[in-house]
Amino acid sequence: MLDFLGDRYEQILFSSWQHFSLVLQCLLMATVLAVVIAALVYRSPALTGVVNSVSAIGLTIPSFALIGLLISPFGFGVLPAVIVVAFFATLPILRNAVVGLSGVAPTVVEAARGIGMSRFRTLVQIELPLAWPIILTGIRVSAQMVMGVAAVAAYALGPGLGGFIFSGLSRLGGANSFESVVTGVVGVIILALVLDLLLVGLGRLTIPRGIRA
Amino acid sequence: MPERTPARPADSVVTGAGILLDHVTKRYPGQARPAVDGLTMEIPAGKTVMLVGPSGCGKTTTLKMINRLIEPSEGRIVVDGDDVTQMNGDRLRRGIGYVIQAGGLFPHMTVATNIGIVPRMLGWDRDRIAARVDELLELVSLDPEQYRDRFPKELSGGQQQRVGVARALAADPPVLLMDEPFGAVDPITRLRLQDELINIQDELQKTIVCVTHDFDEAVKLGDWIAIFDEGAQLVQYDTPERILGNPANEFVENFIGSGAGLKQLTLTRVGDVGMAEAILARPGEPARDVLARIVAAGHGHAVVVDSRERPIQWLSRRKLDRLQTIGSTPDPGLPVVGSRATLSDALDTMLVSSAGAALVTGRRDVFRGVIDIKTVMDAIGRSQDTAAMDSTDAPVGLNTGIFGAVTTDEVASADTPGPGTGTGDTPAAQ
């Protein structure tokens, strides 16, 4: 095991970094996308219902199946991996963003409008900051989930630690096959923990003292 | 009350602006009856106008149409002579203070940020905003050093409400709208906040429009009270004295509730009615001398004051008879009222004490005189006389829903040339 790690030291670090970076970038994209969609729908109960159903149903799609479907239009490589990871990352954030935005007390929104804030300014200065702790919780859930999804994305020859897992599994019983799988899995777990810590730190920095639990 | 009511001389610094609601109607889709039906109402500059009525009567809708949080379906809103019905709603609202129940503070912002938010939208520079925040915190009796950087959740309900008022006043708007401002605080805090609002208003002379369902609050705060029935039908729009003394109809009578006479007592402050003199005594004096003095003056009691003129005991002839020298122990059950207290508070204190009278203290608790039940009765009589006078100086307030007679031009020409000054010569509604 140690020999395996020692020999492929650089490759493992590089794949870990790629995996991490794929997840981080997709997470960023997903957050922006989810917040924009949530901001568009949260004031309409009908649209909110639609969005909630979509995110609930979306999460039941097996990621492996989705990536298989995406290979035919987009081919192998980074693109299908990014699409799948971003898609799954968006769903929990979207759900929390809608819940967070509709959970802002109506009196606070009325006060904001009453002192002359425009709709947009109310959203940016009042509603989003107040919903942020809940959105961030969604981002953390999302981050944990898509760490695994990103590993599956390696099936489409996407970047990251998934490569170790798939190559190990495909020649199970062969030399170093077990070590390869373990490296991939443990690497993903470590990355997930690191990212979660970073997100907790982000919360500390960005959630104002007035609304911290 | 007398110093705050109708004909205030024109030279006092009124910073408020007059408001005119001109045939304003609000219809909601899918509702047969309009929430507000053809309401015309003049709100004089620098006055406090209370909108009261049962819940669902449209008083809050009326209030929110003034800053167009709710857009009127028909009619015009005129503020300070300018028709604001078509202007940008957000810009209009930045120029009008708005206070809601529990302050409506933004929980993620500090007290200072909350208060400074409107000036920041108006593009004030940082130093000016900081100075203004401190000034306003002083105005609402909060120490800037201590409270500036707190978050709303670190304040009590009353303090939050104070910050809410400070935020509404931040950009020095001529008009302040308040929607049940003191509904969420306990009764004792509410009384204190009401007193503070009266003091602030004495100083600033804004135009305040305040919605409440508490008639006593309306009587206490209002220069004018507008009583609404369903569909924002304006039933009576007059001074508290005249509404109490001369209710327009049975609806108003019911709304006032029992004890209209007692409520008139909240209109007058102890310091504004005559006080009786008292024979003073000092600790250490021989009781016999004091007794001789009150017998000579024909009084029944003597008031013992300490070295700073604060009352500590109130001795009857019989007690004095039994004493050798006057003691210096303060009597905890002494019936004392401040000169800023209402007659209602004074009466309350008197009824508790056995003497049927109360001691009045001024600044720093210095003894000022004695008020008795007879003085209170006289005050009730006087305010009933005032109520019987003609209400020719009342501002315009009517519903086309019932009257339908006054044209837009008449009302507009009476008001627009000089906002707030056109009060006197316009024909009253009722």
Automatic annotation (TrEMBL), chain A:
InterPro entries, sorted: ABC_transp_perm/SBD (IPR051204), MetI-like (IPR000515), MetI-like_sf (IPR035906)
Keyword Transmembrane helix: yes
UniProt keyword terms in alphabetical order: Membrane, Transmembrane, Transmembrane helix, Transport
PROSITE patterns: ABC_TM1 (PS50928)
CDD domains, alphabetized: TM_PBP2
Any one GO CC term of the record: plasma membrane
Bilayer-spanning residue ranges: 20-42, 49-71, 77-94, 145-169, 181-202
Annotated membrane topology: Multi-pass membrane protein
SUPFAM superfamilies: MetI-like
Domain of life: Bacteria
Domain ABC transmembrane type-1: start-end pairs: 16-199
Chief site of localization: membrane
Name this polypeptide is given: ABC transporter permease
Species of the source: Cryobacterium algoritolerans
